TrEMBL record, chain A:
Any GO molecular function: structural constituent of ribosome
UniProt-recorded name of the protein: Large ribosomal subunit protein mL37
GO cellular component: mitochondrion; ribonucleoprotein complex; ribosome
Similarity remark: Belongs to the mitochondrion-specific ribosomal protein mL37 family.
UniProt organism field: Amphiprion ocellaris (Clown anemonefish)
Automatic annotation (TrEMBL), chain B:
PANTHER family with a match to the protein in the record: LARGE RIBOSOMAL SUBUNIT PROTEIN UL2M, RIBOSOMAL PROTEIN L2
Domain annotation Large ribosomal subunit protein uL2 RNA-binding: ranges: 72-154
Keywords: Mitochondrion, Ribonucleoprotein, Ribosomal protein, Transit peptide
Gene3D superfamilies linked to this entry: 2.30.30.30, Nucleic acid-binding proteins
InterPro entries: NA-bd_OB-fold, Rib_uL2_dom2, Ribosomal_uL2, Ribosomal_uL2_C, Ribosomal_uL2_RNA-bd_dom, Translation_prot_SH3-like_sf
Domain (Large ribosomal subunit protein uL2 C-terminal): residue spans on this chain: 165-288
SMART domains assigned to the protein according to its UniProt record, in alphabetical order: Ribosomal_L2 (SM01383), Ribosomal_L2_C (SM01382)
GO CC, any one term: mitochondrial inner membrane
Name of this chain's protein: Large ribosomal subunit protein uL2m
A molecular function (GO) term: structural constituent of ribosome
Entry keyword Zinc: no
Localization of this protein: Mitochondrion
Highest taxon of the lineage: Eukaryota
Amino acid sequence: MFPETAQRLKAAAPLVSQTRLLKDLCRSCPHGGPFSLQARRQISVSGCLSAKIPPPKKPREPVEIPGLEMVTYGERMHFVPGLAKPSYPRWERDYKDPRFYTAPPAQEMPLYKEKPCYVFNQRTSALEGVRQAAWLTKAKVIRGLPPHLLSLAENPENQIPDQDERVQNAIKHARFWDTTQERPRKEKYSNTLLLNLLHLCATLQSRNPALGRRILAEDHSLAATWTRGEDLFQIRGRNGLLQNSMDPLPEASGKDEVSETANYVLETFYPVSPTIDLQQINVYKEDVNCSGFTGNYPYPHAHTLYFLETIHSCKLHPEQFRAKMAMFMFGNALARAHKLYGTEPQQLLDRPITVQAVGTNGRIFQFLVFQLNTTDLSGDDGIKNQLWLEEDVELYDFAKVRPLIKKKQVKVPAGLTGYKPEVFTKFLSLYLHGAA
Amino acid sequence: MAVSCLTRALRSLTLSQPALLSSQTKLGTQVSSTVAQCRGFLTTASLENNRTYWKEREKYTVKPIGMKKTGGRDYTGRIRTHGIGGGHKQKYRWIDFQRLRYEPNKEAKPFDEKVVEVRYDPCRSADIALVAGGNRKRWIIATEKMQAGDVIKTSAVIGRMAVAANEGDAYPLGALPIGTLVNNLEVKPGKGAEYIRAAGTCGILLRKVNGTAIVQLPSKQQVQVLETCMVTVGRVSNVDHNKRIIGKAGRNRWLGIRPSSGLWQRKGGWAGRKIKLLPPMKSYVNLPSISAN
């Protein structure tokens, strides 16, 4: 009976007249007589059976007149038409239960400050790239690595026996052999390649015992604070792979070059403000300076940062990737400087702090060297920091699992093609800097 | 679900004692009377299904938003517009039509923005441009010769002399010389551009009268608006849009256009070339009445 009624009503709803529906309903109900009269009075089916949902009505705002006490039905414990609705204070749990915790709004948090702080984290994609990073870190950008750095690996003593062959084997292992499937995925092969190259460099430890005074660390949390102009900046996040050493890196440039940077004018990019794309927050701790390690860590000096390009949540363009590398190098150097010399801004550091970085996506490498000369970053004049940048160097052209054949001609053969040995020499020289 | 509502409601009719019903339908279209036990019940499917929940984001974002296609169906679920359905998936890029939008916490002064990227938008015929200025980025409708790296200006100042406007800049109508080609016209100041947004279109500023300006729309209709309404200078991008050839039925299907009925239908009074006078000028200016009664 019920399904029949339902089907009939559904099918015939807009077309059937009211009386017919009522008759059907009365026929379907089990009671007869007096009930049907009741039903006829109460069942009202209007013509329109599909209405637009009215927008949610805003409840009437209760008007508060001071001095006038509202008579509510709260005491009577049930609704009485004509009396006001009682308003009760918000109930708070008297014990702390982490399952039902609601965060207070930002204004009520204990660390809330009026002045906003701009935070650069590992997911930030800076719109202007390296120019923005250079402005934020008050650095002069120099294309090309410092020459004395490159000459380190030219020295035949510092070269690995069978260097080219071993590097090519390392690439082949990462790109072809390290999987049970047809080809390894990008995240995997870039990681494997980096670790293989690091291992190759570390084999020189037998000749240079100073290379043993280093250790690798992964995913440590970095935090550093500085002011630039009137704005407060922080860099916070988890780095990539970091190589720490017991001894600090020597300076990459002499005192003369450092004092020459005072004449350099920083590049601005009007109309875009340098704080674009940075996360703006009002709840922050002032003066957080954390290098990621505790005070008595035996390897306190950051030597080289290794960045891998592939993280699915934040895909960065090469320019933004270089900017991220530069900012994190600066963050490490600044955290170290704050620890050594205190948080007061210093015009010129006695010993400039140098940090290196290598970024890769498995084939293309970016080399950066950053030298922190000053922590006085509020003004745009004075001594600047220095950033040496070598971008987009390819270690090899192609590493194909299957050959590329166009029109029955082999354009690119399978296997490793176009290997460039000088890229590994640069990698090695950055590794050996400070020990050789 | 309709059956369960129905059964619940009808079951109440069988009760011998009157009892208060709890609200059964989500809508609660009729308030239960104090005497009887029968409320109106819904015989269609739940109406909540056809709301556009994907559109309810309040904060502006540059990230493309996933879109749900309607297929020409409205809130009742029936086809209201035929010939829409299928097609490639599209993501909605939120365009900021109110060009004169100052950044929060900044003064209300003329400002510059830099064009970062000009790209195709699947949701409209014109191309869109990502512009960055100050601390924020937003999407706007690109004009004809806009390229990445250009700097465009937005100003609300109406001076005595007309401004020599560059393409892509946005000014109020009162500041532009007559005869300029304009697009993205606001008819109510501050509301956002609603007219002249399609690919290759442009309006012409015809005259400036008292505090109002008269613009000719692409349909040759003339419109009178206040001179403080913002407008961008130049033609909208993607000028050759009307010259494109679809080429095959499949391309129309990719655009989400379903085939029309193949039956021959006698054309009525709507078809054929019409030659008639232009409609009178539409005025969006609420002039105060002269007679104060």
